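LAB NOTEBOOK - FOLDING QUEUE
OPERATOR: T.R.
BATCH SIZE: 2
PURPOSE: Compare the predicted C-alpha cell outputs for two unrelated chains run back to back under identical settings.
PRIORITY: normal
REVIEWER: second-year student, initials M.K.

ITEM 1
FIELD SEQUENCE / FIELD STRUCTURE:
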Amino acid sequence: MTVTLVSARTAAALPVWTADKAGLAALPAATAHWAETARFSAEAGAVLIVPDTKGNVAGAVLGLGKGGAGEGALQRRALLGGALAGKLPAGEWYFADETAVGGPLASLALILGGYRFDRYRSSKADDGGDVRFLAADGSDKADIESIAAGVFLARDLINTPTSDMGPAELEGAVRSLGDGFGARVDTIEGDALLELNFPMVHAVGRASASAPRLIDLCWGRPEDPKLTLVGKGVCFDTGGLDIKPASGMLLMKKDMGGAANVLGLARMVMAAKLPVRLRVLIPAVENAISGDAFRPGDVLTSRKGKTVEIGNTDAEGRLVLADALALADEEAPDLLIDMATLTGAARVALGPDIAPFYTDDSALAGEIAQAGLDVADPVWRMPLWQPYAANLASKIADTNNITSDAFAGSVTAALFLQGFVEKANSWSHFDVYGWRPKPSPIGPVGGEAQAIRALFAVLKTRFPAR
C-alpha cells in the first residue's frame, strides 16, 4: 500500500480517532458504541474500521495501548500510526487529534508502515489501494519523504539476497545512488587493493568469486566540513575457515547492513543538500571459503601498518573496516561515523531494536542520544573501556582481531576499531543489527535501517541547509 501525504484536507476525508487502554470514553458516542460492540480493546497498533448507519466507512480508531511515561514515550506512540498503512481502506484520511500521536513523526510512520519487499513474488498481493493522509501540522513533506526513501533504500539493500547483492552489485547500488545526486564514485578492486595498500580488505574477500573492492563516493564542496561515513559491506559471511553453522548463515545476507545504513543516511544528506563534503567508504567483500581463504593464525599487515593476528576468521568485519577507517582518518574529517553489523554481543546486551554506539566525544554522544529520543530511533551509548583493550593482545603481532576471553565482545570490537582512528576530529562507531525479527507498525520482518534517522537529525542541526 502506498501512503501519500497531502497538505490540505477535503470534505471527503475521513477521521482517525485514537484510544488507549484506559477506555473509549473520549471517542464520539457512536464510535465508542461501535468499539464496545466490536470488543475493541485499543491494543497498541490495533485498528478498527468504523461504519456509518448505511454500512459505509465513516472513520477508524487507532489503538494506543497503555500509553507510557518518560522520555520518548510520545515519540514511540507516534510510530503506532504506521499500523494504519496496511489497514485503512483507500481514500483520504486525517487524525482527529494529531497531538495524541506525535504530529510530524506520525506522518513519517504512516509512510514507513507502507513498506513491502515483493521483488521476488511472482504475484503481487492486492493491498487495497492508495491512502492519502493529511500531513500533521508542522510537517516538512519533502523532508519526511526523503527520510522514508533513505530508510527504504537501506531495507531494500539488506533484504536482497546475496545472489543479487554481492560486492559487484553493491557497487552498482552505490553508483546508482551517486548518479542520482551527482556524486563521484570510484572503486579499487581485486589485486589493486594490494597495490594501493588495502591488504585486509583484500585478504578477507579474496576467496570469493566476486572480487573484493573498496567503494568510495564523494559529494559536496571540498571547502565544506568533512563528513565521512564508513559501512561494513560483507555481502555474505560464511565465517570463513572458522565456518558458521548452517543456522548461523541464514541471515548473513544482512551482514552488509552497515553499508546499507550509511547509504540510506547518505541519501538523506544529499537530498537535503546539507553543506558538507560527504564521503562514503564501503569495503565490499564476501567472506567465502576456498583454497585462497585467509586462515586462523595468519598475521595481516593493515593499511595503517599495524599487524593483526587472526584469532578467528569470523571476526572479519572489523578487519575490512580497519583499512577503510585508516583511509578515512588520513584526511582528518570533521566527523567520522562507521556502521556495522559487527557482533552478536551487541544483541545480547541490547537486543535487536536498540543500536549501541561508541564515541569518546561526549558532546556528540549527547546529541545522538537526544536525537534518538526525539525521533524514536533508539540508540544507547556504550563505554570505550580502555582496560579491556589489553585483551586484544597478541604474542606475535601488534594486536589480535579477537580477545582471549568471551567478555565484552561489542566493547572490544569498538576498541579494536578505535586503534585505527587518530586524526578525525570526532568519531563514532555503531554496532547495528540491521534486521527486524518481528513485525512492527513501521515495518515488516526483514532488513531495517537503524540509528540513521537519529544521525540525520544530528547532522541537520550541526550542518543546517543554506
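ITEM 2
FIELD SEQUENCE / FIELD STRUCTURE:
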Amino acid sequence: MGDLRQEVEPGSAGLDPEALDRLDRYFAALVTDGRLPGFLVAVSRHGRVAHLTTYGRRDLAAGLPVRSDTLWRIYSMTKPVTSVAALMLMEEGRLGLDDRLADFLPAFARPRVYVDGSGPGTRTRPAERPILIRHLLTHTAGLTFGFYRTHPVDGLYRDAGVESSVAPGADLAETCEVYARLPLQFEPGTQWNYSVATNVLGRVVEVVSGEDLDEHLHRRVLGPLGMTDAGFQVSGEQAGRLAELYGQDTEGRLTPVAGLPLHGRPRFLSGSGGMVATAHDYHRFMEMLRRRGELDGTRLLRPATVDLMAANQLPGGADRLSFGSPVHREPGNAGLGFGLGVSVVVDASATRAPSSEGAFGWSGVATTTFWVDPRRDLTVQFLSQLRPKGSHSVFPELKRLVHEAVRP
C-alpha cells in the first residue's frame, strides 16, 4: 500500500504558502457548503510533494475522513494509462500510429459515416479512409458517446444499448463489436470528438499483447511503477479505503450513486474509465511522465515518445474549439489541443484558466483531474468523488489558485 506524503516545504520548492492556503480554504468552503464530499489536492515541484491537503469525508454517512491512502474512482484518468500501454507496444514495433484499426479488430474493416436522418431513417455512406490507431489516441476516429444527446449517431448508440459505453452484460471485446456496427459521426481524422475510442484502444492492447487489459496493465505499467493499489477492482483489504461516489439530487444535495462494479473482477475492462487509484499511485504515474518515461530506474517509454504524447496532434496545430465536433465547440476548449491520450495547452492566452503552454493532463467525471507542467516542473492532482450535474466548474478555479502559488 502506497501512502503519499509531503516531502518538502512549499517555499523551498518555489511555491507561495499563502496562495496554497487560499487554495485549501476555497475547496474547504465547497465541502462546508455541501458542494463536495471531500477532496485531496497534491502539488509537486521538481519531483517532490510540496503541498498535500486532505479535507472532508470519503463517506458522509459513516463519517469517514478523506486520507492520503483513500482509493478513488478515477474514471477517464484511466485513459492516459491505457495510452501509455499502447505507446509501449509501439516502441516494441508491435503497433504503429498509422496502422489500420481493422488489422487488429476486423469488425472495423468497413466503417460507414453518417449522412443524415435519425433512428431507423439514418442514412450512411462508406468511409473514404480507414480508422487508424492514431485516431483512437487523439479522439478523431468519428466515434462518440451515447450520453451526449447532441447528434443522431449518439441516439444510435443509445438504441444499441451503449449509452453508458458498455453493452449490458458484455465484455470489452463484445462491446467493441457493438461500436463497430454503428456509423461514425464524421470521416476519420477530420474532427475531434471525445468518445469511446480509448475502450477500443484497450481492446487493441489486448489483441496485440495476448493478455486481458487488467493483466497487461498490471504487468507492464502499474507494477513496474509501484502503483500498488491501482487496478480495476478492490480487494477486501482495500474496500474500507474506497471513497463513496456521490451525485446531486434535484436540489443540489449530495446523495450516493452507483459507481463502477469494483468488488470482484468486472466483466467489462474499460480502458477508457475503469480504474481506481490512490493519490500515491497517480503521483507515480505523473512523475514517470514528468521525467519523460522513467521513474526510479524503471523506464517505460523513451523521452521522444513522451514528448510526442504530450504534443498537440490536431492538424495544423488546431485547438479543440476550432477542430471539435459541434458538442465541443464551446469556450472551455479554446487554447487546448490534444496529444496521444492527453489534453495539451497550445495557446495559454486563450484558455479558460491560467495555464502554461505545453502543460498536459486529463480529468475524470467524478471530479478528478491531473496535469503535468514541464515549463514549471510542476505536477498537480485533485481527487474528489462527485459526479456533478453540469461541468466541472471547480477545475478552472483549481488551475487559477495553483498558478497563483507558483513563484516566478
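REVIEWER COMMENT (ITEM 2): The CA atoms of residues 139 and 194 lie 5 Å apart.
FOLLOW-UP: none requested
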